[in-house]
Task: structure prediction
Amino acid sequence: MLSAFFRFNYAVLGLFILLSTSTACAITASAAPSGKYSSLLSLVQKHKFAELDKQLNQLQTAYEAGKIGDVDLAEAFYTVSGTQSIPDAFYDEWVIRYPGSYAARVVRGEHFKRQGLLARGAKSARATPKESMDKMQAYFDQAVPDFQASLQMAHKPVISYLDLLDLSSRVATSEENRALFDEGLKAAPDSFVLRRKYMRVLETRWGGSLDDMTRFLGECKGTGLTPSQMNILQAMVYQESGWLAVQGKQPQAALPLLSKAADLFAGQERLLEPGAAAEVLGQIAYINLQDKRNEEALLWFNRAIGQIGDCFYCSYLYANRGLIHERLQQFDEALLDYMTAADLGNTYALNRLGHIYTYGEHVPQDKAKGTDYYSRAVAIEMASAPAKAQPPGKQ
Result:
């Protein structure tokens, strides 16, 4: 059943993948993973395959024995797969050395999935060249066999189902997504991360609806989830309500809904998908930016950037905060944020720095440096044609 899900339809992608400052995908390469399992990265960097394989598979065994939860397990796997600086050959060698290893298969699949999303980029599907879509598809075609093979390598392959559901959400029908989710629950009936992922699958931007999400929230009651976990799912429903209000050009209606979501997950951000807290906080900040509530916007951007983790739009957060700093005449801080955003490939920040240095605004005039920033922006815009650079807001 699973193999039928994963040939991508560009019309479907064009309809449902709508990434901007107010939408997100959980997987990209904004920063190296950090957290309680960050020590695993040293094993990756030193190519200590035996110890890495042992530790990850021990965590899988601990999860199956009920000694750790699936949030911890997902974080551990994500820590190993969640950096783009490790070449494909590393993961291939790991699988060759340990062909029956659950950890090796899953991590290589997650690496390919991540590389596919990086190859696609963060623009809307309609603004993304077919060549980039084809590169994404090629990586996804490599990821799926690893995830499928891993299903037979563990008693509770919850991370495999988590990743397969992530991929299927981009192409499969709602019935197929539900069938895959139910199949995952048979393997891991008490899973929170699968329910969290399925709640994401039910979002309007992926072909679901607010009503679908609300019904599923009710379905999750009485399944053994903790109050904190239920709060996360409720926060996702509030976020969806806010997102819909934004899409309907009703930002003031969105603000209290997004604020309710932020209140529910405050102090429990680790239970969210990577980058999800920054997404909500960034939406609140952006609404305040648009209304020129600059001090309030700055507070929310600071919170969002503090929760970045990994998200497609992190460069927009820095660019927007740079804009706020400029409005508040905090020019040194603005320059630092623009430079951070520029290093992440944000064309608005690159163009803004080009202007600042060309005309000597707040800095000594340096036309050569200004030209360099402009040239970098043009190169990125040409590479992603027909996409056009959009400023994060108006001064």
User: Anything to note?
Assistant: The chain has 19 helices and no strands. Confidence is low (pLDDT under 50) at residues 3-33.
